[in-house]
Amino acid sequence: MSVAREALDRVRQPEYTGENRCTPCTVANLCITAAVAAALSLVSVPLAAGFAVTGVASVWLRGYLVPKTPELTERYFPDWLLAMFDKQPMPEPAPEPPEEFDPETVLLEAGVVESCDVGDDLCLTDDFEADWRGRMDRLADEERLRAELADQLDVDGDVSFDSHGDAYIAREGDTHVGQWESRAALLADLAAAEELPERVDAWPALDPQRRSQLLGGLRVFVEVCPACGGAVTTDTEVVESCCRSTTVVGVACDDCGDRLLEVPYREPEAAADTAV
Hints:
Elements: H1 2-11, H2 23-41, H3 45-62, H4 69-76, H5 79-85, H6 103-109, E1 113-115, E2 122-124, H7 126-139, H8 142-153, E3 159-164, E4 167-172, E5 175-180, H9 183-195, H10 208-219, E6 232-240, E7 245-253, E8 259-264
Antiparallel strand pairs: 1-2, 3-4, 4-5, 6-7, 7-8
Helix pairs in contact: 2-3, 6-10, 7-9, 9-10
């Protein structure tokens, strides 16, 4: 038994089987196996049966029959089809801003951000940054974090957390009640949701989408990781799932790798030709 198991382990490809199995690759290869076996049955039924068994075994052990199937499905399958089977959470496109709502203006008027001393960018005001950071530090306590999230979401039961891929998920029992890029992102959002009502006069009247815009927009200003205290950097990278890839802009903690913000990267529009 041990010899057979060792032989199977040498053939098996864990990166394409089990929890990592790519469903579109599996479906495509099983269809190919069935089609080829059907064609071979016209010549020889035993040959067709042997090919079918070999094909199914290859898909089971290796994730595919045809070499380079993951690359082929990523290249030739439409994205909407791949998204139906994709198990890994991919970054959602940023929602279109609601009409007549400018988060930057709201934060400026509330004294949350101001023009930086150098350059044309915006920076957090010193007093908001200190208060926000203090709230993040206090929420680092697990019990306080659970209690504050339950209060913010108006949840009666106990809140629990678990991770799936790059997602940090909050649940009440078996019910999914919230999802963030990481624990650091949750800390930043909850702390800001505590602080902003004291500064943004219109906060009680804002709908969840507008509040989410303000909270998510603030994460780009985080310079010290709420989860591990390390530095935070912004960079672009390619995120891979079972059969898709996309370029994203990520704001992440250097020491622990917690992702604070991840949005799809958009190529800058070409500058208009101003030549006369």
